Amino acid sequence: MAIKNKIIRHSAIEVDALFDKEHQLIEQVKSNQLEQVLLLWQSKQQTLVLPAGKKWPQSDDLIDALASAGWQLSARKTGGAPVPQLPGIINLSHIYYLPEEQQYDIKAAYLQLCDVLIEFFKTLGVQVDVHATANSYCDGDYNLNIAGQKIVGTAQRVLLKKGGGRVVLSQACIIIDADVNKIVEPVITCNQICHNPAHIEAAVHTSLFDHITERPSVDELFQALTEAFLSHLPR
Question: Domain of life here (predicted)?
Answer without folding.
Answer: Bacteria
